[in-house]
Design a protein that fits this description.
Length: 253
């Protein structure tokens, strides 16, 4: 349920999926839905395609949807083979970048310190950083969920973060791509703790958007999005089908 004065965000993380044609078809399908909804759309809608398809998707959707990257480098430019600078994403027309997704923390050994540096670079390029946090199943079983998530947030938030340039995505790692989700009470407890922490750390922390991610589907989105301090969703698998993602967008209110 959205917090007062907070416009929800429905974000699709396409990960490393699809072809150029798939990306264009999906983006155009969603842009058509957004255009049909017009002013009735109560959430911001964001898609994060793979890097090679960003430019075509941005051109094809022509501002009807927000577009973002799935990562950026901490440095502004230089000898970093294979990496992408935040300013390059901004130059293309991206408005957001996902940082510290658990798949990057695992596949590329990204620490919260490196996520913080990337988030600083994102802010310097005038992008909104979506900083992902979440516990492993072992951390949850030990009762360390909130401690883990709070530590990640404290270590990842860059100087200069505000409600206008920072989004937090809470994604329990064991819920990503598994079809399993925490209970409503568990999500409420974690989002409540994140909100309290953000209020302590940032003067406008009461209105930073806090997304839930991990096996969000059209069938569970309404229940998840009705939880206090859940201000939208970060969606993987279900963001790859127009009807499924739009069902989730409709539940973000
Ligand atoms: P999922 O992925 O929706 O497929 O669980 C979420 C994410 O990794 O952002």
């Amino acid at each position: 349920m959205t917090t007062a004065n907070v416009r929800p965000l429905a974000a699709g993380n396409w990960k490393m999926n699809g072809t150029r044609q798939f990306a264009l078809d999906l983006a155009m399908g969603l842009a058509t839905k957004a255009a049909q909804a017009g002013a009735g759309l109560v959430a911001d809608v964001l898609i994060c395609p793979p890097f090679p398809y960003l430019e075509s998707v941005i051109a094809a959707t022509d501002g009807k949807l927000a577009v973002g990257g799935q990562d950026c480098h901490a440095k502004a430019s230089g000898a970093h083979t294979g990496d992408v600078a935040a300013a390059m994403l901004a130059d293309l027309g991206c408005r957001y970048v996902i940082l510290g997704h658990s798949e990057r923390r695992t596949d590329h050994q990204e620490s919260s310190a490196s996520v913080k540096n990337k988030a600083s670079a994102a802010l310097a390029a005038r992008l909104t950083a979506i900083v992902c946090v979440g516990e492993t199943e072992a951390e949850r079983d030990r009762g360390d969920t909130i401690k883990t998530v709070e530590k990640q947030i404290i270590e990842s938030i860059p100087d200069g973060a505000t409600a206008a340039n920072l989004v937090i995505a809470y994604e329990p790692i064991w819920a990503i791509g598994t079809g399993r989700t925490p209970t409503v009470a568990d999500v409420a407890a974690v989002h409540g703790a994140i909100r309290r922490l953000l209020r302590q750390k940032l003067s406008d922390g009461g209105t930073v958007r806090i997304l839930y991610g991990g096996s969000v589907k059209p069938s569970n989105a309404a229940e998840l999005m009705a939880i206090p301090e859940v201000n939208g969703a970060l969606v993987g698998g279900a963001s790859l089908k127009v009807e499924d993602f739009w069902g989730i967008v409709a539940a973000c209110r």
